[in-house]
Automatic annotation (TrEMBL):
Listed EC numbers: 2.7.1.1
One Gene Ontology biological process: glycolytic process
Domain of life: Eukaryota
Residues in the signal sequence: none
Catalytic activity: D-glucose + ATP = D-glucose 6-phosphate + ADP + H(+); D-fructose + ATP = D-fructose 6-phosphate + ADP + H(+); a D-hexose + ATP = a D-hexose 6-phosphate + ADP + H(+)
Subcellular compartments: Cytoplasm, Cytosol; Mitochondrion outer membrane
A cellular component term, taken from the record's GO annotations: mitochondrial outer membrane
Function recorded in the entry: Catalyzes the phosphorylation of hexose, such as D-glucose and D-fructose, to hexose 6-phosphate (D-glucose 6-phosphate and D-fructose 6-phosphate, respectively). Mediates the initial step of glycolysis by catalyzing phosphorylation of D-glucose to D-glucose 6-phosphate. Plays a key role in maintaining the integrity of the outer mitochondrial membrane by preventing the release of apoptogenic molecules from the intermembrane space and subsequent apoptosis.
Pathway given in the UniProt record: Carbohydrate degradation; glycolysis; D-glyceraldehyde 3-phosphate and glycerone phosphate from D-glucose: step 1/4; Carbohydrate metabolism; hexose metabolism
Protein name: Hexokinase-2
Organism, scientific name: Seriola dumerili (Greater amberjack)
Amino acid sequence: MLAVHLVSFFFSKLQEDPTKKVDRFLYAMRLHDDQLKDISARFQAEMKKGLSAESNVTATVKMLPTHVRSTPVGSEKGQFLALDLGGSKFKVLQVKVREGMGIRRGGVEMEEKTYPIPGELLAGRGAELFDHVSESLKDFLHEKNISLEKKHPLAFTFSFPCEQSTLDQGKLLNWSKNYQVRGFQGKDVVQALREAIDRTGVLAMVNDTVATMMTCGFDDNYCEVGLIIGTGTNACYMEELRHVDLVEGDEGRMCVNTEWGGFGDDGALNEYLTEFDKDVDAASNNPGKQIFEKMVSGMYLGELVRLVVLKMAKQGLLFDGFVSHALRTKGKITTADVAAMEEYKNGLKNTKDILTGLDLNPSPDDCIAVQHVTTIVSFRSSNLVSAGLAAILTRIKQNRNLRALRITVGVDGTVYKTHPQYPKRLHKVVRRLLPECHVRFVLSDSGSSKGAALVTAVAQRLASRRRKVDETLSPFRLSHEQLQLVKARMRTGLEAGLKTKGPSAIKMLPSFVYHTPDGTEHGKYLGLDLGGTNFRALLVKFKKGLQHNTRLYHKLYTIPQEIMQGTGEDLFDHIVECISDFLDYMGLKNARLPAGFTFSFPCEQTAIDTGTLVSWTKGFKATDCEGHDVVSLLREAIKRRNEFDLDIVAVINDTVGTMMSCAYEDPQCEVGLIAGTGSNVCYMEEVRNIEKTEQKKGQIEREEMCINTEWGGLGDDGSLNDIITPYDVEVDQNSFNNGKQRFEKLTSGMYLGEVVRQVLLDLTRGGLLFRGHVTEPLKTRGIFETKYLSQIESDRLALLQVRSILQGLGLDSTCDDSIIVKEVCGAVSRRAAQLCGAGMAAVVDKIRENRGLDHLNITVGVDGALYKLHPHFSGVLQETASVLAPQCNVTFLPSDEGSGKGAALITAGARLKEKM
C-alpha cells in the first residue's frame, strides 16, 4: 500500500513540474561536456581518415578538396553571373565585385531572381533539371538586358556532395535534401551545366558551405571556416595542403568540404543515438546515411520533436494520453514550429497554437513540457555542431602549431538565422570547449551566391598573380640551351686565362701546387685560413701513411666589418692577434712551426710562398693591400707584434686548400669547388697549357699544376649579359665592386639573398606580395641573408615556419605570400646551382680532353655553406654537371675540415720536398 502511495506521490510531483518528466524521458539527448569532447575526438579521427588517400574510400566524413586555395583579400574585382542550386528553389544573380572594396568596405553589388523548381524535376532526369536551370538563366539575362551573345564568367553553387579534381569540375557523389534526380550520380555536374548553357563559361563550382566562408571572408580576413545549419548541415575550412592526399602539392592551403553530415554512418555515434533518431532514419529516403545530419539539421528537428511528443502522449505523459491523427502524421511538426515554440516571449502561446492546430487540447503543463522537448532537441543539435566545430578548430590550431587561435566562422542556414536561441547556445558551447580560441561568428548576409562569385573572383586574382609571378621569375629559369652557352663561355674563358696575351675575365692564377697528397705527409703544421668574415687557426698533426689518423685542433675568430673595410695594417694586426691567442691556447708560443696560409682572394703567385693580391672580393676593402704580397704583409705584422715567429711555407687559395684536403682522402680528387660566401673552382691543369709559366718549364719537369680559376669574374666582359636580370644589375650597382665578379654575384651566398630581396621588392611594388605594402625592412639592403634561403627552402619546413622567418624580418606575410617567397628563393638558388653545374661541366670536360680520354672518372672536393647547408643546391649542381658533361663521371666529396687542412698538407709536402 505504501508503495502505491509513493508512486502516486512521485507522479504528482512530475505533474507539478512538467519539465522534469521530459528530462527523464529524454535524458539520452542531454549531452555533457565530456561526451561532447568524446564526439569531437571521434570527429577529428574521421577527418584524418577522410584526408588520407589510403582510408578516404571507407571514411564517412569525405573531406572533399574544393580547389579553393585562398580566401578573399579585398583586391578581387569583376562582374559575374551566379547560379545557386540547393533546395526547392534556385537563384540566378549578377554580382559585381569592386576592386579594393573588400574586408569590411562593402564592395559587392548584387541583383537576383528566384526561380521555383517543379516537384517532378526533383525526381526526373538530370538533363531536364539542367535544361530548366538554363532556361531560367536565359530569362534572367533577358530581363537584365545582359547580352546573350557575350561569354560571361559564371559561378555555380551546388549544395550537394561532389568530388572535385579542379575548381571547375565536380562529380556528384549522392543527392540529398529530397533530390532523387535519375541517372546523374557519378557524373560531372559542371559538364551537364555547360551542355545546357551555350555561351556561359563556368569558372568555379562550389558547395554552399564554401561560398558562405568566402562571403564572410570578403569582410573579415580571419574567416577560414564555413558552417551551414539549415535544411542540411555541413562545414568547410582551410586545411594545410600537405595533409590533403587527394590533391598534388604540399604548399599552401585548400578549402576542404567536410561533408560532415555522414559522420556516424559507420556506427561511430551509435551510443548517442536515441530510438527517435533511429525512427527518423528508418523513415528517411536514405536509411543508414547522413546520421549526423539527421541529428542536427532543420530537415529533421521538427520530426524528432513530433516523434518524442507522440510517444509521450501514447504513454499518457501528455494530453491525458490522447493522440490525434495529425500527431501521428509525418512532417506535421516542422523546424519552423520548433523555432516558434522556443521564442522568448511568445513561445508558450505559439506552442499552444501549434498543438491546437494538431487537433490536440493541451493543458498549460502540456505546453511547458512540449516546449521543453523542443529545447532539448534543438540544444542537442547545437551541442553536436559545437563538438564538430571544436574538432575543426582544434585541427587548424594544431596544424599551425599555435597555443591560441583567432578565427572567424562564417555561418548561414535557416536554423541558425531563425531559431531564437540557437546561435547563443552554439557560441557558448564552442567557447567552453575551446577556451584558448578566440572564435567570432559572422552571419552571411548575402547567401552563398555572393560567395560563389567571390570564389570565381579569387580564382581570377590568383591566376592573374600566377601569370605575373611567372613572368617575373621566367628569366631565372634557364633552358638547357642557355646552360650549354654558359658552359661554352666558361670554357672559352678558361682557355683565354691560361694565355699570356689577350684579355680574360677569368684570371686562371697559377698556384705552384704540382701534386695532390700521396700519404707520405707527417709532422705538425699550422694552418691559417682567411676566407670571409671569419679567420680560422689550425694545428694539424699528420702520421705517415695514415690518412685517417690525422689530429686537428682549431679555433674560429670573427673579422669585424670595420676591420674588413679599414686599413691593411689593422687587418693583418688583427689576424696576428688571433694567431697569438691560438698559440697560447695550444701552448706553442715558442715553437717556430711551418705554416700554410689560406688566403681566399685572387692572388698572382710567382712561387708557392708569395702571392700578390689582385683585388678584394666578398666585401673586403682593406686599404694598401691590393698589389702587395700578402705573405710579406703577414710577416711584417708578426714582427710588429714581436711575440712569436712562423715559418710561412705556402700561400694558397681556399679552393686549392679544399681540393688538397679532399685529395688526402680520395686520390681521384683533382678539382676543388667553393660554394659559399664566394664562388670559385681550381683544378689540375697540364703545365704545357699554362703560358704564364712557360719560361719555367725547363726547370720544373712536372706535368700538372693546380690552377685557381677565379671563375667568379666570368661575365665581367659582358659575356653573361643575356642571362643577367634587372635584379642582378641592381645588386651589382649597389656592391663594393660594381661591374666585377658578375658570375660570383649570380652564384654565391654573399649575393643570393640580396637578389631575392630585389625580386620581393619588385613583386610587392606590383601588388603581388605583402598586400602591396613596401615596409622599411624590405627596403633595407642585406636584410635577407642567404641563410634564409636555405631555411625557407627546406622540405621539412611548414609554411607557418616560413611566415615566422619573414615576420622575424619585419615582413608580415599571408600563407599565399609565403608560397611566393619560397618560390622566389627556389628560382634564385636553382639558377645559382645550375650555373655552377655548367661551369663545372666546362672544367671536367677540359680535363678529359687534356688527357685524351673518352671517359673521365674524377672527384671534386667541395666546401662552402651554400653547398653544405642549402637543401637543394648540391643536387641541382650535380644533376646539371652530369647532363652537360655526359662523358665525365663526377663524384662530389664535401670537405670535413675545410681549406685550412689543405694549407697544412701543402706545407707538409713542400717541407718534405726540401728535405729530399
